[in-house]
Design a protein that fits this description.
Layout: E1 8-20, E2 23-29, H1 44-47, E3 55-57, H2 66-78, E4 85-91, E5 106-115, E6 127-131, H3 147-162, H4 167-181, H5 193-202, H6 207-218, H7 231-240, H8 249-263, H9 280-291, H10 297-306, E7 310-316, E8 326-330, H11 334-337
Parallel strand pairs: 1-5
Antiparallel strand pairs: 1-2, 1-3, 2-6, 4-5, 7-8
Length: 352
């Protein structure tokens, strides 16, 4: 019979995305109470966050499939009935749930991505829509490159890369930092979103890294030690790298948004976030929100009309000032006409 050390729990997490106006949002819920009896004082502030992704355990007797289990938990926690969902990744790192440090089971979680049109959560649920750039602020380049990326993040990441005593490690870290954060003339790649979060975690520049380091230390473990960067400078950087989430939920969020950005290149997923009829201005703003980059208005309009991704409905938008804008709809026949009918990812403006 398997011992306690072999105990396993399967969890289900949902990254539910919507775009409202020009704001890309993710649906969050109140996190579980995870504090261990000896997590007091100094470690507690890092363990606490009001943000988690909708989640719940897979219950084999109750849930016929993993996806039905996910839908059940989302409905229970948010009152939202999901449409299409797709599986992302399986997360099984040791101690990703701190209760494992105290002898609890290994928690393996399966992440899912769902695209919806924003609807208010039921009043009796503890859930809310949040701007996803509050959690991943370095990814929003719509107003140009965030100044603090150059002023704070890149210098610290470079010092971290150089802090290893091993030459091969220094070289490997330097290459990863250059590619992910556009150092040494490299162009910023919006789709390397997860890689950037994981590098920030590895360097100790996000709150979850400090939380996990202190949790491991409180259990007499040495894992999570961060070298090369002064503690005070790391804490200042942590204040600039966004809101933390429960457990590794920010990593799951980064995985989902990287998947979504990548799919813009070859699938018309953006139309799942729009009403049936929309203006080209609205379509442009939704893509910019997802990509974290501005589009050239005329080039964008030529792209979507010349590739026949959309078709005019014959109607016009009501209300507003000036001449009402034309309304369009997604032309579904494009799915039969070519294998990869995406819109493409706009490239952020690079610094001079």
């Amino acid at each position: 019979m398997a011992g306690r050390a072999d105990a396993l729990s399967i969890g289900l997490n949902a990254v539910i995305v919507a775009v409202t106006g020009e704001v890309p949002r993710v649906l969050t819920v109140e996190p579980p109470k995870l504090a261990l009896p000896d997590q007091a004082g100094r470690t507690a502030k890092w363990a606490e966050t009001p943000y988690a992704l909708p989640f719940g355990p897979f219950e084999p007797r109750r849930h016929r499939t993993l996806e039905l289990g996910l839908r059940s938990w989302v409905d229970e926690q948010t009152g939202l009935a999901l449409g299409h969902v797709e599986q992302l990744y399986t997360y099984a790192d040791r101690n990703r749930d701190p209760r494992e440090l105290a002898g609890g089971p290994r928690v393996v979680s399966i992440g899912y991505l769902a695209l919806v049109r924003e609807d208010a959560p039921q009043e009796d649920t503890k859930s809310e829509w949040c701007d996803w750039y509050d959690f991943l602020p370095w990814e929003d380049w719509r107003a140009g490159r965030p100044p603090w990326v150059d002023e704070v993040i890149r210098p610290l990441m470079w010092r971290w890369a150089e802090s290893s005593s091993d030459e091969e490690t220094r070289r490997g870290r330097g290459e990863r930092v250059s590619i992910a954060f556009a150092n040494n003339g490299a162009a910023w790649d919006p789709v390397r979103l997860l890689e950037r979060y994981e590098l920030l975690y590895e360097a100790g520049l996000v709150a979850e890294a400090e939380r996990d380091r202190l949790l491991a230390k409180s259990r007499g473990r040495t894992g999570g030690r961060i070298g090369g960067l002064p503690h005070a400078e790391r804490l200042n950087a942590i204040a600039a790298t966004g809101r933390p989430m429960s457990l590794d939920h920010r990593r799951i969020l980064a995985t989902a948004l990287e998947r979504l950005r990548g799919k813009l290149n070859y699938r018309p997923v953006v139309f799942e976030l729009l009403p049936e009829d929309f203006t080209l201005f609205r379509l442009q703003r939704v893509i910019e929100a997802l990509a974290g980059a501005e589009l050239h208005k005329q080039n964008f309009r030529r792209l979507v009309t010349n590739t026949r991704l959309v078709e005019a409905t014959g109607g016009r938008e009501s209300g507003g000032r000036g001449r009402p804008a034309k309304l369009y709809r997604f032309r579904r026949d494009v799915l039969l006409e070519r294998p990869a009918p995406g819109i493409g990812m706009p490239a952020p403006k690079q610094p001079d």
